[in-house]
């Protein structure tokens, strides 16, 4: 039996606590997970079971939300981050990483953080969650995947202006993205021979160079090199024909060249169930594909679908282990 999933609390003033509560209510003992956070932040109508070891999670989850207590300084106000909570949020993430790296947790699922709140309250030195996790793990390069039952997509370049994509799309960046994606599909998704579709950068994958030469001069040589190493790579493909039903049936993941090229298809196909997965870490990390939603926090109206899917995917990846199907 795999160890339970650890769920870090994220920003307490956001929707994380109520999503954890809703996820427990939906999953109960079918998918045991433990929340790392302050039990006082859990909605009052949800029963809580305080645990001091994750081995107690499965028994506790049958009747209550298991919580590994981490006391936070200062009061909670829904919708307004408390600067006194910032260091606690950071420490909970580090604690979750320790648990999964030690084998006490099978995977880490992270509730959303509020980056500005962490910077203001604790001088958080990282651009976001992913970079902090990479630093804790001691790795230099990680890759973002958005996954749902309908589609898995990986953007090669992420949060940069469209005008900078061409310069940022170097052979080394694309090579690393493809190799990390390929390895993760084997290790974490149990696929013995992953099939990866690779989008071109330009319309019609450059149409023979008449609409840009990046597809010919940057993307195609990397694909040729990695195919020689045994990777099953299709492309560069015209992105406008990659995401219909028949096309998606021919590959296991799509690697795209920039943020919107990857995220528009998955958010159109399966907006509520998309999950953020960080590839390239020495452990499994998933997260719901949304932010802290401070504007609706504490109102009980947040949709828990993405959190539930993030926990389910974390468990599925942990069970896939290192033995390909």
Please describe the topology of this protein:
Layout: E1 5-8, H1 16-27, E2 33-37, E3 48-50, H2 57-61, E4 65-69, H3 86-101, E5 107-110, H4 115-122, H5 129-137, E6 143-148, E7 151-155, H6 165-168, H7 171-187, E8 195-199, H8 214-227, E9 232-237, H9 245-248, E10 253-256, H10 259-270, E11 275-279, E12 285-288, H11 305-320
Parallel strand pairs: 1-2, 1-5, 2-4, 3-4, 5-12, 7-10, 8-9, 8-10
Antiparallel strand pairs: 6-7, 6-11, 11-12
Can you tell me about this structure?
By secondary structure, the chain is of the alpha/beta class. It has two domains: 1-139 and 281-325, Isopropylmalate Dehydrogenase; 143-278, Isopropylmalate Dehydrogenase (3-Layer(aba) Sandwich), CATH 3.40.718. The chain has eleven helices and twelve strands. A twelve-stranded mixed β-sheet has the order 3-4-2-1-5-12-11-6-7-10-8-9, sandwiched between helices. Helix 1 (16-27) crosses helix 11 (305-320), helix 3 (86-101) crosses helix 4 (115-122) and helix 7 (171-187) crosses helix 8. The longest helix is centred in the middle third of the chain and has 17 residues, at 171-187. The two termini are 18 Å apart. The mean pLDDT is 94. Catalyzes the NAD(P)-dependent oxidation of 4-(phosphooxy)-L-threonine (HTP) into 2-amino-3-oxo-4-(phosphooxy)butyric acid which spontaneously decarboxylates to form 3-amino-2-oxopropyl phosphate (AHAP). One of its GO terms (cellular component) is cytoplasm. It holds the Pfam family PdxA. Keywords: Cobalt, Cytoplasm, Magnesium, Metal-binding, NAD, NADP, Oxidoreductase, Pyridoxine biosynthesis, Zinc.
